[in-house]
Design brief:
By secondary structure, the chain is of the alpha+beta class. It contains 18 helices and twelve strands. The strands form four sheets. It has a five-stranded mixed β-sheet with strand order 1-2-8-5-3, with helices on both faces. A three-stranded antiparallel β-sheet has the order 4-12-9. A two-stranded antiparallel sheet has the order 6-7. The N and C termini lie far apart (51 Å).
C-alpha cells in the first residue's frame, strides 16, 4: 500500500519547489488515495479531477444543507469568526441557490464584451509597468510587474482610490494564507486581522459610493443591493452570519424569511464579493506570470521561439504556462452524501483534495506533459477549475497575461535571470516570492 504521507508533503520546501515527480507516483498508485495528515482523499488524475469538479454530490460548502454537528465536523474557533464571515459569503464558498444568484449578478462585469472594453486600460497599465521596469534595468519581476498589474486592474474595476491601493495586496496575502492546508494560529491571526480591516475599509467605501455613485463595480453592486428593498436588509440582519463562531447557515439562506426569494445582494455579500474579486482576481495572474517567466528562462529554446513569433505563439503559450506550472495546485470539495468512486466509498463528511497540478501533468491527457511546449494546441488544463465554480475572471486573467507577456517580450528582448528565484512557502497557491532579472 502506498504511503501517501511520504509522497505528498505540502509543507516540505523540496516538494513545493517541484511536486511533479511525486504526482507521477501518486497517479501510479491509484485514482483516489487517503491522506492521513489531513484526513482528505487525494485525487491525482485529470479525468477524475474534471469529473468531480462537476459532481453536484460534492460542494465547496456543506452549510447550505447541514450544521457542523450534523456533518460530523467541528465548528471553527470563535476567534476566527471575522475571516469565516467574510469567506463564507463569497460565491467561491457558496452553493446554489446563493452561488447562482451572486454569480449571475457579478458575471455581468466579466462578459467577453465587458472584458474587451477593459483591454485598453489593461494594455495601458501593463505598458507603464514594463516601461518603468525596463528603464530601471530590471529588478524583481514579481513585485514590480506581476503583482501590480492585476491588483491595479481589479482596483480600477472596483473604483478603489489610487492612494488606497497599496493596502490591497497585504490584506489579500494575509487572507489567502488560510487557504493552505492546516494553517497555523499565526496565519489565522493575520487573516482575521486583515478580514476585519478590509471589511471595515469596504464598508466605508460602500457608504461613500452610495452617497456619490461612480462608474465602477462597487456602485453597480450597491444598485443591486438597493434594488432589493428593505426585505433583504431585514433578512441580512436576522440570519446567522455563517461564520466560524459556531453559527450555521440554515436552509433559508437563499430567501428572505417568510418572503419571496432574494435576487439581489446583501451588504455582507457585497463586501465578500469585492474581497473575492481581488484575491481570486490576481493570485492566478501573479503566479502564472512569475512561474511562467521562470519556466521560460529555464527553457531557452522555447523562449527563443516565443520571441521570434510572439503574436502567433502567445495565445497557446499563455495556456501552456498555466498548465506547465499550475498556480493553484489543489482545490477542495466536501462530500455531501456517501458516494462510490473508483471502487472506494467516500463517506458523507469527508473531503477530497483535487490535485490540479497533477491533473495538468497527467500523461493520459497530455502528450509528454513534463515538456514545455508553447505551441501545444490540445490543452484542456484545469487551472481555472470546472463546473459551477469555474473561474469567473478567466477572460480577464488571460487578457492580463497576454498584455504583460507581450509587453515584456517586445520591450525586454534580452531579459535574463539575475539571481536564483526565491519560492514562496505556500503550496496550494504556489508561486515565487521573488524573480530578479536584468533587462
Amino acid at each position: 500500500m502506498t504511503n501517501t504521507a511520504t509522497l505528498f508533503r505540502p509543507r516540505a520546501a523540496d516538494f513545493v519547489a517541484n511536486p511533479y515527480p511525486a504526482y507521477a507516483e501518486l497517479r501510479a498508485a491509484g485514482r483516489v488515495l487517503h491522506y492521513p495528515p489531513t484526513g482528505q482523499w487525494l485525487v491525482p488524475h485529470h479525468a477524475d479531477v474534471s469529473a468531480l469538479l462537476r459532481d453536484r454530490r460534492l460542494g465547496r460548502s456543506y452549510q447550505h444543507r447541514f450544521t457542523h454537528e450534523e456533518f460530523g465536523r467541528t465548528a471553527p474557533p470563535a476567534a476566527h469568526e471575522p475571516f469565516h464571515t467574510l469567506n463564507d459569503h463569497g460565491m467561491l464558498d457558496l452553493e446554489p441557490p446563493d452561488h447562482t444568484r451572486i454569480r449571475r449578478l457579478v458575471s455581468q462585469a466579466f462578459t467577453p464584451r465587458t472584458v474587451e472594453r477593459l483591454a485598453p486600460t489593461v494594455r495601458r497599465l501593463a505598458a507603464r509597468l514594463v516601461d518603468d521596469f525596463v528603464a530601471a534595468g530590471g529588478g524583481d519581476l514579481v513585485a514590480e510587474v506581476a503583482e501590480p498589474l492585476p491588483v491595479a486592474v481589479i482596483a480600477e474595476m472596483l473604483g478603489i482610490p489610487q492612494a488606497d491601493r497599496p493596502l490591497l495586496r497585504p490584506w489579500s496575502a494575509a487572507i489567502c494564507g488560510m487557504y493552505e492546508l492546516n494553517p497555523d494560529e499565526e496565519t489565522a491571526t493575520r487573516a482575521v486581522r486583515a478580514s476585519v480591516e478590509f471589511s471595515d475599509y469596504l464598508r466605508e467605501l460602500i457608504a461613500a459610493r452610495r452617497a456619490r455613485p461612480g462608474d465602477d463595480l462597487i456602485s453597480a453592486l450597491i444598485a443591486a443591493y438597493d434594488d432589493a428593498g428593505e426585505d433583504s436588509r431585514d433578512s441580512e440582519d436576522s440570519r446567522d452570519s455563517g461564520g466560524g463562531g459556531g453559527g450555521t447557515r440554515g436552509p433559508g439562506l437563499g430567501a428572505d424569511a417568510g418572503s419571496r426569494p432574494r435576487t439581489r445582494l446583501t451588504e455582507q455579500e457585497m463586501i465578500s464579493t469585492c474581497v473575492l474579486l481581488l484575491n481570486a482576481g490576481h493570485e492566478a495572474t501573479v503566479n502564472t506570470t512569475a512561474n511562467g517567466w521562470w519556466a521560460l528562462l529555464r527553457n531557452p529554446g522555447q523562449l527563443a521561439r516565443l520571441r521570434a513569433a510572439p503574436e502567433a505563439l502567445l495565445p497557446t503559450a499563455v495556456e501552456e504556462l498555466m498548465r506547465y506550472d499550475t498556480p493553484l495546485q489543489l482545490f477542495e470539495r466536501w462530500v455531501l452524501e456517501d458516494i462510490e468512486f473508483a471502487g472506494q466509498v467516500l463517506p458523507r463528511g469527508s473531503e477530497v483534495a483535487l490535485l490540479f497540478g497533477s491533473a495538468n501533468h497527467d500523461p493520459a491527457r497530455f502528450a509528454d506533459p513534463a515538456a514545455l511546449d508553447l505551441s501545444r494546441a490540445d490543452n484542456p488544463h484545469i487551472s481555472f477549475g470546472a463546473g459551477i465554480h469555474y473561474c469567473l475572471g478567466a477572460p480577464l486573467a488571460r487578457l492580463e497575461l497576454h498584455c504583460s507577456f507581450g509587453e515584456l517580450l517586445a520591450k525586454a528582448p534580452r531579459m535574463r535571470l539575475a539571481a536564483e528565484p526565491e519560492r514562496g512557502s505556500g503550496f496550494v497557491i504556489r508561486g515565487l516570492k521573488e524573480l530578479r532579472v536584468e533587462c
